[in-house]
Amino acid sequence: MASFVLKRIWQGLLTVLVVAFVAFGLFRFVGDPVMSMAGAEATQRDREELREQLGLNDSIPVQFVRFVANAATGDFGISYRSGRPVSNLLAERIPATLELVFLGAGMALLFGVLLGIAAALRPRGRLSRFILTGSLAGVCLPTFVNGILLIYLFAVTLRWLPSFGRGETVQIGVWSTGLLTSSGLRSLIMPALTLALFQLAMLTRLVYSEMTDVMQTDFIRFCRARGLDRRSIFFRHGLRSALMPVVTVVGLNIGSVIAFSAITETVFQWPGLSLLFVDSIRFGDIPVMAAYLVLVSFVFVLINLAVDLIYFAIDPRLRVSRAGAPAHG
Amino acid sequence: MLRRASICLSLALSAALLSSAQAQTFRWATPASVATMDPHASGDTTTRNILINVYEGLVRLNQKSVLDSELAVSWEAIEPTVWRFKLRPNVTFHDGSPFTADDVVFSFKRATTSSSDIRAKLRSIKEMKKVDDLTVDAITQAPNPILPQGVLIFMPILSHVWAEKNNAVEPADNRRTGKENFATRNADGTGPFKITSYGVDGRIEMVPNESWWDKKEHNLSKVVISPIASDATRVAALLSGEIDLITPIPQQDVPRVKESPQFYILTAPEARVVFLGFDQWRDELIASNVKGKNPFKDVRVRQALAKAINMDLVRDKVLLGAGDPLFAMIPPQANGWTPEFKTRPASDINEAKKLLADAGYPAGFSVTLDCPSDGLSNMGEPVCVALTGLLARIGVKVDVLLQKQAAYAGKIGRRETSFYIHSWGATTFDALATMELTMFSYGDGVGTWNVGGYSNAEVDKLILSASSEMDAAKRKGMLTKALSIHRDHVGTIPLYQPTLTYAASTKVKVVTRSDDAVQLRWVRFQ
Fold first, then answer.
1. Contacts across the A-B interface (CB distance below 8 Å)
2. Do A43 and B120 touch (CB under 8 A)?
3. B488 in the same domain as B348
4. How far apart are CA B433 and CA B425, in angstroms?
5. Candidate from A274-288, B296-310, B484-498 with smallest mean pLDDT
6. What is the complex's ipTM, to 2 decimals?
7. pLDDT, tens digit, for every residue of A21-52?
8. How far is it, in rounded angstroms, from Cα B311 to Cα B318?
9. Architecture of domain A89-328
């Protein structure tokens, strides 16, 4: 068990390092922050001085080693644009993203499973057809279209919900939360729904197809033969086995929800990590970009580790063949 | 009908709610937030244009973009290199400390330390000297006829008492020390508005400075500035009544906003020129199929390209009217302009083809155009694509290389381009700065942005003389002449002057200015 976890952690760290290195290699194509920082009137010498100060004259490997050494102590450097420590910027933005992601994922999970079950109850019923058609739209429509449609419906036409931002927030220690004010909650509804829609629709379809598959298997038929009542067969036996792949998919998707909240955050001007990242691309703010990418890869690694551990707990086969474990990469 | 009724009802309700709860709160959305609260730490335009409401300088521009007094009441050049400024008495900073000559001297020092990102703008001043409490002398490196308008307008003044008390005597030199400084997130100017909050999300709240020295023309009780980067969301925020002013509004949304009686469109010609530049210094282009020679060195090729571009068409079909074609490197608002600069070379395909053939390229050639996809007010991509079509008609095959602004700026700055679209703002409303940076033979300090390497001894001589000519009429003559020569040689192909387009609620009256600075001191609720 311990060696399995250690091995996983080691692999995870390696992944983070590789992501950081690739990111560093790409930054030279992202832009030259010196041009805009030094201003139009700057001389070549001004630019050269600035470049030297920022350490941009060093080779990529040297910059990379410096970055990793500093990052190991929690220091991600200074944002070129705002002149503030990147770790502070990230820390300030994390609450907004996490509240959005967890609410979005929660909505997707709850409604996705419920709708999937409702559709599977009577697979040829009218309700089922309605849900499945709707879920198809949810899977097909791009996130930014969803977001804009919601804004035009609920903000511009009905004027019920705010179209941008996070509303009033309350500071609790280092955490700023929008969950305790009415404007904060109202601001959260549309972004969370936008973020949830794709996952929700996908989960609906997944639960539906798993359920209909399971309901046709032999063991369900035996349950019927034993004379168990329909309800018990459906929920106690059918649903339970249908939910196994759902757990896997949800686990793996939380990471991508965080990573792909970029579009939602941009559409709703949601002041989270991804918006910070999108802004930093525009201004060539390399320290912020690097830290964000490392952070996101770190989150992915953590989630994958958690999923592996859950597998480990569930699947007895993994426990037996410890040495050959990493079959579920 | 029912829907309309419900909209009307909700409108009336929200209007009633708004007017009772937040009377005269002016809510303004911009694409980007300020980079920092420290006016010396960043040269960013958005930052400057927002902080201009908080920090003042010795001089300012009025509604017509003409030089006006601010913290200085009068000034004169007592010697060619010495300007004497009489300062405004009885002015206090937001924290209550008095404004004196010491603050001017201190601010100059602070703005020219190595951690200041605006120091290059102030390069022509050697020293600021206190004469008495309300008099300072600015000593320049060389005679500078437009020192107040060309240089000092870019020097925001901070309280030295406040800066010393809060350990912020220099802009935070974060790149080395890794520390932020009190002034990064707090402000203390003499301006008409005081900052009350600066949030993580970039939201800024301000209240009027009740002890401001000037006559109050606005009637605001609070200001909230929110960054909204996405164009569609910014427009939606206006239409939903959450925002009173958006700067800018994308051109395609203008008709929709015009339809509604609750909103209106504001425009102003921007003091900026969008132009095409070409490599005229390398012996062989780095991004073209012509080998062994550089077609852009031949003036006939440059003329042919200029003739092939029908700017009226581009204005109507691509810019949707938001631009004025011209053919000079400065806009009409800048000193040095003459009406004939408005006239573009007549668009004539046959003549353009003939010029190309005479130059030895009867079949044309191909070249890569560097283009910022998110630059030129987001018009970079459509304009570049339109140019491709226009130039293809004379056989010049243009490959558009779309890049993000940050990447593009680096590439242009390092001169790694054969053909590029760029824009230059006449922020001083005078031709000289534009000419020194984009037309003077490429070099260090001057000609830095002469990316294409146009070089003409007479133009250089005229720019040099104009930079120290104290006689205004003579000086203007020199500027116009140098601009005309550059124009005749097609040193660049100037395309158009962009139009700034904002949208606002009809409840507010906003004054637009050609430098894209919205001055809160002129905003009024009706």
1. 178
2. yes
3. yes
4. 9
5. A274-288
6. 0.85
7. 888 777 767 777 887 777 778 888 888 888 88
8. 10
9. Orthogonal Bundle (1.10)
